[in-house]
Amino acid sequence: MFEVFEKYLRSKTQLTDEELEMIRAVSISRKLRKRQYLLQEGDVCRHDCFTSKGCLRSYRLGDDGDEHILRFGVENWWMADKESYNSGEPAKINIDALEDSEVILFTRDNFTMLVETIPNLRLFMEQLYSRAFDVSQNRIFTHISYSAEEKYNDFVKSYPNIFNRVPLHMIASYLGVSRETLSRVRNQYAQK
Amino acid sequence: MFEVFEKYLRSKTQLTDEELEMIRAVSISRKLRKRQYLLQEGDVCRHDCFTSKGCLRSYRLGDDGDEHILRFGVENWWMADKESYNSGEPAKINIDALEDSEVILFTRDNFTMLVETIPNLRLFMEQLYSRAFDVSQNRIFTHISYSAEEKYNDFVKSYPNIFNRVPLHMIASYLGVSRETLSRVRNQYAQK
DNA sequence: CGATTCTTTGAAAACAGTCAATCTGTGTGG
DNA sequence: CCACACAGATTGACTGTTTTCAAAGAATCG
Question: In terms of CB atoms within 10 Å, which of A58, A64, A116, A119 comes out highest?
Fold first, then answer.
């Protein structure tokens, strides 16, 4: 299971075999069944999670009690509640598997040790964080300026591999519109 | 003008006098008149900007041509188009002053030199970035799960110092609702 | 096949946006 | 000091979009 992660790292970084072995040594491989939790609200997020196979999502419950999907994560995506992971506070979000999945986990202590020992890994992770931030900022822009239809089209364009893989009502949740609205938006769009 | 920034750093970090002097040496102090641009769409964002006095905003134009406010920045807040700053690509956003302001600027090269030389500064900036990311993620949650009224109340609660300082129609833009809707929402709320 | 999950559709209600007019306060120039 | 312009906020009437509720039609899975 580590092979996928190793391939990912080799394609994105210039790590040596020794460094990769060091990473492997502290990695934790896990299988997740569909619908299985990786993190539950109230627990502390103790791991950063790389998805080597399958599909995860993170979501948070609203006051009304329904699920609002924050992110999806497929192969080669990272997933964690960074807020809880960094602060040690209980997580406000849940993470679960939408498909049978395989993940690589790292405890915070181990991962901190790795980035402090391996400069190229630190560099890579910093690039990753700043791109994650940019993505987040761009998503805010879509929310304050796009209509439901524009948000859907943008999503399909940006994440074709996710959109044809997760149920539509979850995309609706991710976009912040009702499933009925998204269904209508999409069918009107198909007619054009 | 550097004093405000120095005070900020002293309160948040354990930097030595030598380190602070090193930072000061590469800092650029600028005054901005109200309505003056710090960054215009299409230009490359060459500086990270600390606001020591006044109020800035960043915004991006929609296809329709109107302004969508991404962030406000008052005293002790940082402001930049990180995407352009890191990539060297032209900025998609604008930054301008809502009040006569004073800012401290750092070029990317200088700031990189600083964080690589001063471990405590690096640590502090990393904490800053991760909190900025958390804030960003939480804002996405408000956009997918809150109504206009809830978004307004949340904003007032989270940023009391900004809400009583910038025009209402800009808060509306920030929240992604029309100024008329926000005006109504707020007056209904006042009646309770 | 039966159960569950997912998607679609219709009709009504709630919500938010647009357009236009008015009101308010502020500041500038004569 | 006044008149005027200007930016900001509010209100009303109307339109359009989105949600909600309810039902029914696909698709999937054990």
Answer: A58
Find the closest chain A residue to B125 by CA distance: A126
Question: Is B11 within the bounds of a domain?
Answer: yes
The radius of gyration computed from the CA coordinates of chain B, to the nearest angstrom, equals: 18
Asked if residue B22 is part of any domain, the answer here is yes
- For B176, residues 6+ apart whose C-beta sits below 8 A from its C-beta are A143, A144, A145, B68, B143, B151
The CATH number that applies at residue B76 is 2.60.120.10
| Confidence at A82, pLDDT banded by 50, 70, 90 | very high
Query: A177 lies in a domain?
Result: no
* B176–A68 C-beta distance less than 8 A: no
Chain B touched by A143 (CB under 8 Å): yes
Reduced to 3 states, what is the DSSP secondary structure of residue A177? coil
Among candidates A60, A69, A141 on the partner chain, residue whose Cβ is nearest the Cβ of B60: A141
Nearest residue to A53 (alpha-carbon basis) of A92, A100, A20, A7: A100
Assess whether B178 (CB) lies less than 7 A from strand C.
yes
Chain B hits for A137, Cβ within 8 Å: 70, 82-83, 136
Range(s) of the domain holding residue A55: 2-118
**Structural domain contains residue B78:** yes
Residues of chain B with pLDDT below 50 are 190-192
Digit-coded pLDDT (tens) for A175-186: 999 999 999 999
* Residue A60 at interface with chain B, using a CB cutoff of 8 Å: yes
Residue type, B37: Y
